[in-house]
Structure formats: C-alpha cells, structure tokens
Design a protein that fits this description.
Chain lengths: 324, 491
C-alpha cells in the first residue's frame, strides 16, 4: 500500500515537473511549483520525515510562492520565447540526470538496517540524545544542539538573502509618497470574514510551532514562516497600510538583526561561561536545563529573523512599482 | 583562555559584526568598523598559523565531539588560506572607503558593508571547517552576499553579470551538496577527517564515483576552471571596484582550497589519481585555461575584464601545479595561491584608483595615464610584470616552481605551455604600457593622482609583490610543508 502511494506521488511529481517546464504562463508555473512542493512534502511524510515535510510545506508551497508571485507583479506574467538553442541545456540536463541514476545503482537499499547511515553517527542521536540533550524530538536535538552551528549558518543565510534582496530592489524603489496603491480585497465579504477568523488562529499556531518544536515537529524556521504568512494574509486582504505602519522598514531591520545576534549571542555567552561556542551545558547548573535554555533561545532567534526577513521581503516587493 | 577559542572566533567575529553594520549609518563609522573587524580577523589568522606549528588544531563546536558535532580543524593548509583571505580583505578595506563612497549609493552603505562582511565571514567559514556539510552552509552565505555585492556595480550590466553568476553559482553549490549527500550515503558521516577514513573502507562504487563527479564539477564552477569560467569575466568587470579587488584576491583562492581539501584529504590521492585519471583531466583543462583565457585577455579593451580573463589563466597555472601530483608541483600551486592573490588585489586596487579619477577603466581611459596618475600607473605596470613572471616579483617565484615541476616530471610540452602563457601575458601588459606611456592623448595633461588613502594600500600590495618575490622564506616554507602534508610525504 505504502509503495503504491509512493509511486503515485512520485508519478505526480514527474508530471508536475514537466508541466512547469512546458508552461509559458509564469503565474501558472508558480502555482504548479507550489503543488510540486506540496507533493514533495507528502513524500517526506510517507518517509516519516515530518519535520522536513513541515518545512517544505510552509516554505516551498507557502511563502516562496507568495514571494515569486510578488516578483511576477514587477515583471511580466508571460515568459518571453527564448532565442537560445535548447540543444546544449538539454544535453547538460540529460548527462546530469544519467549520472544521478548511475549513482543510485550501488546505493544502499531503501530502509536497509545495515546501510552506513544507520550504523555510524545516527545511533548515538537516537539512543543518547534524550539523556544528553533532553528533547523528545531527536530532529530538534540534532538541528539545534549537535549541529546547532549549521543552523546558525542557515539563519545567517536567510538574513543574507534579505540583505541581498533589499540591495537589489534599492535601485528601483520609489519614495514613500509614490507607493503604489495595492488594491486590497476588503470588499469581498467572504474573503474578509474568513481572513478575520483565520489570521488569529494562524498566529497562534505559529507560536505553538515555535515553542512546541522540542516535542513535536516544528521549530523556529517553520514558525517564522507561518507567522509571516499570517501578516502577509492580513496585508493582502485587510490592508497593507496597517502592516506597513506597524512594521516599518527600520523596525524590521532591527528585528532581523536581533534574531541573528540572539543566536550568535548565545554562543558568545557559552564562551564567556567557559564552554565551547554553543555548548549549552554551561548555561545552567544542570546540563539538561542548560540545553533546554540554549535551544529555546536559539530557536527564538531563528523565529524572529525568519519572520522579520520574510515580511521585509514581501513589503519591499510591494513597494516597487512595475517598471513601464 | 581566548587563544583556545580562536578557531571559532575567526568566523564568529565577522559574522556577528555583519548584522551590526545594519544599525550603523555614518559612512566613516561603517568603514572604520569593517576595517577593524578585518584587521582583527587577520591577527587571529596569523596566530592560528603560528599555532599550527605545534600540530593540527581541533575545536569541537557545541562541545560535541566529531563526528557527532561540527569540528573546526585547522592545519597548515587552511591556516595559510585564512591568512590570505584576511590579509587581502584588510588591505582592500584599508583603501576602500573613498571608492565605496563614490560608487555605492549612500542609502545602501550600511547594507553594502553588511554584505561585504557576510561574504568575508562566509569565505573564512568555508576554509576553516572540518565538516563537509558546514562547507555548504558557509558557501551559501558567501555566494548570496557576493551576488548582491556584484549587482551593485554602476554599470547596468552588473545586474546581468550577477544574475549569470547566481545561476552558475547555484548550480555549482547544488552539485557540491549532491556530492556531499552521496558521500554521507556511503559512509554515514559528514566530518571530513572521518570521511577520509571511511570512504576507502567503503570501497569504490558507482555512488562514490558519482559523488566525486558532482563534487568536482561543482567546485570547478566556483573556481571558474575552464570551460566553466564564463561567469567570471563579467562578474569581475562590472562589480564595484572594491568588490572586484576583494573577490579577485580571495573567492577563487578559497575554491582552489576546497578542491584540494576534497581531492587530497577526503577522497584521497589513491582514489582520485590512481583509480580515476584526474591528473590528465586537470592537465588538459589547465592548458586550455592558460592559453585560451590569456588570448581572450589580449583582445579585451575593458581592463577589469582583461584582468578577469587573466585570473582564469592564472587559476589554470594553479590547477596545472596540482596535476603533477608532486611536492614541487603542489608547492607551486600553493605559492601561486598566495602570489596571485597579491597580484590581483594590487591590480584591481589600482584599477579602483583609475575608476575613482577617470570614471572608467577602458583602454581609452589609460591614454597618458603614465603622466596623469604616475603612481597608480606604475602600480599597474609592476602588477602586470608580476603576472608575466618577471624576476624580483612574486610571479617569477611561482612560475619558477611550476617550471621545475614540469621539468621534474619530464613534461617539456608543459614547459613550453607555461613559457608561452607568460609571453602572451607580456603582450597584454605591453598594450597597457603603450597606452599609458606613449599615447598622451590630445588634451593637455594635468596631474590627477588618486587620493593617498587609496594609493597607500595599493602600493602596500605592490611592495608585497616585490618583497615576497625577493624574500621567499615565509611563503616557500609554508607552501612546501603544506604540499608535503597533502601528499603524505612526511608524518
């Protein structure tokens, strides 16, 4: 049964991928891409990787579709016919694909308990992380503690992406008084009512995902994205001006800096307390309490930076007027 | 206490400084802050290099021992590259203030310095880490920030150049990630040292071959190895002057380091050079890079593009040195890593001076420059001679070792290639000299030398080109011990 589901999902994935390439209407491409991400998320669920599925659904199907749509609003909806020959790109893709397939031939079989990935590093995470880190969710232990430094890097990546987009858009941004009047959708009673009910629930859910990541799937990345999505929904349906007034660019800059500095700051504090960088054990008398505090704070840092960066990206896209 | 934590501070210091730049507004303050961070990083790199005399430094981040946690692992090789990156970064930043103020919109200054420090920290993070996945994370930081930095060039073509680099760079990074994923699949570990032990045990397989192929192509894209170099000339040509100087001196050097680390430390010489014909592949690509890129440089009329093509050729020399798989060959590559960073940083800084005064870096802007900007132009000439490999410059030292390696290997065709490359380089350097000294142009000549704040760092780099061309004790000893370590000759 599970195999049948996998085959159907993967089949859909191939169909959607071909449709994305074939599609000339970019709006449709973006929506198809959203479906692609949702299908990937479903496959991750069937692989029991719920944390990854959660991220893929929130980021791939959710926020990145909104951001690409915002980009389309500035450019054009239809793809221009390409003047390049398709031969070389097609060859590159075919060779790359063939190499990947070739590489899978000697791959350890799926779910093989003897596969190297199950025999070396992973057993300690599975057996000892509850005693060493104290989190029921092993993924959170690996992400925020064992490999917490990678996660810090990823937060900086998000921050860097935000900085990069702001720099790129700065050359086309208009003055405050020239802001384009995005028409909101307030006059649609159904949308308005549904939004008014949903938005508080979305924000509450984001908080739950943020603070419940130790026990269930979730954490700062997903929570940040959901939090931002709640505000973006508000901006699109009820009115962008209130969001702009609440989250001024300066305030958002401060917030996204705060998140990164909070994460790195936890590392600095552990240094000052005599441990290695990001060794949360030294944060409290009891090692596990220290781990708990450390993970709580760095996840909070992740959540703050992700929320602020996503909102800031959305708002800066909406501030740019379509180039004539 | 602090000396134990130097490895992590090397990266965390600029990484923490970057977001703080967003909050600063005054141009002078931003510049002074960035310069201070760069210099402190260089001091850390220097003391790390000293510490490696006593052996490899290992730092367990988070207190988790490798391979469960992420390890920073500093040996002679990466300490040396860290010193190159931080040293070049400090000198470029020292002379950067006026050029940045002129070329970057004042409302973007905070974000510009933020992106610069992120790129700086990203390059250091790639170099210092002992964890294969951590390489990818910091590669993303340095790549994203460099795309943004390049796009800020005043020429509108900077946007297309940045976009091209973004597409190629993203493919490169994805390939590296696929390679790392496959290595994890066969070994169950991400730690480089651990990988080095477990990959041979796993035995060669199709998965391993695919991992190697993806890693090699991915790194080659970042390294701009011929024929994957097409993004580089435009990126360097249209980026803001200071960004060109910084990236030309550091980014490709870090990519060469990553290639060395993956081939020699992780996959091992046995696999890469005995089971796979890597030596022949590298040699062919290097020859093509040296000859074809140098020829493209000759026909260029934009000087930044000219020197960018020359960078592709110079990377060819480094790769050629690697392909010999001998101590002399590797020594020449490592020497050239350092020497080429000095040459290109000096040349692009000098071009930043030209840009600052003349508003352009086309051949026409060079006319009579020998009299209008004598010091700047002299810097270009000396940097050019160093590229050619004239004695008393650093270029001579690396070419000399490369020739020795070719003779040692009995490859006289390659001796001819290296000499031909130098002669071709002489042609484009002569073209510059001719424009600068012999074409006065018809307008009356007035002295308009670049400000001292830019000229002094440029000349420090030029003098370093000469100093390390005469006193080679530091560079050769480090390069040689590193080469021996990589080849496993000693220890």
């Amino acid at each position: 049964m599970e195999q049948a589901i996998d085959i159907i999902l993967l089949g859909f994935l191939v169909v959607v991928a071909i449709a994305v390439v074939k599609q000339r209407d970019l709006f449709a491409s973006v929506i198809l891409f959203g479906i692609y991400s949702l299908l990937s998320a479903a496959i991750f669920v069937s692989l029991d990787a719920v944390d990854v599925a959660f991220t893929e659904a929130a980021v791939g199907a959710g926020i990145s579709s909104i951001l690409i749509l915002s980009t389309l609003a500035l450019t054009s909806r239809n793809e221009k016919p390409s003047s390049h020959s398709v031969f070389l790109p097609l060859m590159v893709v075919l060779v790359t694909g063939a190499t990947l397939v070739f590489g899978t031939l000697d791959m350890p079989a799926f779910a093989d308990p003897e596969a190297p990935v199950h025999k070396h590093v992973a057993p300690r995470y599975i057996q000892d992380s509850y005693q060493e880190v104290g989190m029921p969710n092993i993924v959170t232990s690996v992400l925020a503690s064992y490999r917490g430094y990678d996660t810090m890097g990823e937060v900086v990546v998000i921050f860097t992406a935000g900085v990069a987009v702001l720099l790129l858009l700065s050359s086309v941004r208009h003055k405050e008084d020239e802001l384009s009047n995005l028409t909101d959708l307030k006059h649609h009673p159904i949308l308005l009512n549904v939004a008014q009910i949903l938005i508080p629930i979305i924000l509450l859910f984001a908080l739950y995902v943020q603070f419940h990541g130790d026990y269930g799937p979730g954490g700062g990345f997903q929570a940040g994205v959901i939090f931002a999505a709640g505000f973006i929904l508000y901006a699109m349906i009820i009115g962008i001006d209130e969001i702009r007034k609440t989250f001024t660019p300066k305030y958002l800059h401060w917030l996204s800096v705060t998140g990164v500095v909070l994460y790195i700051g936890v590392g600095i504090v552990t240094l000052l307390l005599g441990g290695e960088f990001l060794n949360y054990n030294v944060l409290a008398e009891e090692k596990l309490t220290g781990q708990h505090w450390g993970i709580f704070l760095v996840e909070l840092g992740v959540g703050i930076t992700v929320t602020a960066t996503m909102l800031s990206l959305f708002l800066s896209f909406s501030e740019v007027r379509r180039t004539p | 206490m602090i000396s134990n934590h130097l490895p992590v501070l090397q990266v965390v210091l600029p990484l923490l400084a970057a977001p703080l730049c967003v909050l600063l507004k005054r141009s002078s303050l931003l510049w002074a802050f960035t310069l201070l961070v760069s210099i402190l990083s260089a001091v850390i790199a220097w003391s790390l290099l000293q510490q490696t005399d006593a052996g490899i430094i290992s730092y367990a981040i988070g207190g988790w021992a490798a391979p469960w946690g992420i390890e920073y692992r500093v040996d002679k090789l990466n300490a040396y590259v860290l010193l190159i990156v931080t040293g070049i970064g400090s000198l470029v930043m020292l002379g950067g203030r006026k050029s940045i103020e002129q070329e970057i919109d004042s409302k973007n200054l905070s974000l510009f310095y933020t992106a610069y420090l992120l790129c700086f920290a990203g390059l250091l993070g790639i170099t210092i880490t002992g964890d294969a996945f951590n390489v990818f994370v910091f590669l993303e930081i340095s790549s994203l920030s460099s795309y943004a930095l390049i796009s800020l060039g005043r020429d509108r073509r900077a946007l297309t150049a940045a976009y091209q680099y973004l597409v190629m760079g993203t493919i490169g990074a994805t390939f590296i990630l696929i390679g790392i994923g496959m290595m994890y699949m066969i070994t169950g570990t991400l730690n480089m040292h651990d990988l080095a032990q477990r990959l041979p045990e796993a035995g060669s397989s199709r998965t391993m071959l695919t991992a190697f192929a993806f890693m090699f192509v991915g790194v080659s894209l970042k390294l701009a190895l011929f024929p994957l170099h097409l993004w580089l000339p435009n990126a360097y040509a249209y980026a803001p002057s200071i960004v060109s100087a910084f990236l030309a001196g550091t980014a490709t050097k870090v990519a060469v380091y990553v290639l060395l680390r993956f081939i020699f430390t992780i996959f091992g010489i046995e696999y890469a050079f005995t089971e796979l014909p890597l030596s022949a592949i590298l040699m062919l690509l290097a020859i093509a890079a040296i000859l074809l890129a140098t020829m493209s440089a000759i026909y260029e009329s934009n000087m930044k593009r000219l020197f960018a093509y020359s960078s592709v050729a110079q990377l060819g020399y480094m790769v050629l040195g690697i392909s010999f798989l001998s101590v002399t060959g590797l020594t020449s590559s490592l020497l050239h890593l350092f020497n080429h960073a000095l040459m290109k940083a000096a040349l692009f800084m000098a071009l930043a001076c030209v840009m600052y005064q003349q508003g352009g870096v086309m051949m026409d802007n060079l006319k009579g420059l020998g009299r209008r900007m004598p010091w700047t132009f002299a810097a270009i000439v000396i940097g050019g001679l160093s590229l050619v490999g004239v004695p008393l410059t650093v270029g001579f030292i690396s070419k000399w070792y490369l020739l020795l390696a070719a003779i040692e290997a009995g490859q006289f065709v390659l001796v001819a290639v290296v000499l031909a490359g130098s002669l071709l380089a002489l042609i484009y350097v002569w073209k510059l000299v001719e424009q600068g000294y012999f074409h006065s142009g018809n307008e009356s000549i007035t002295r308009q030398e670049a400000p001292l704040s830019m000229l002094i760092p440029t000349w420090l780099l030029v003098l370093a080109n000469i100093y390390f061309g005469i006193d080679t004790s530091l560079t050769i000893s480090v390069a040689q011990t590193t080469a021996e370590q990589l080849l496993g000759v000693t220890q």
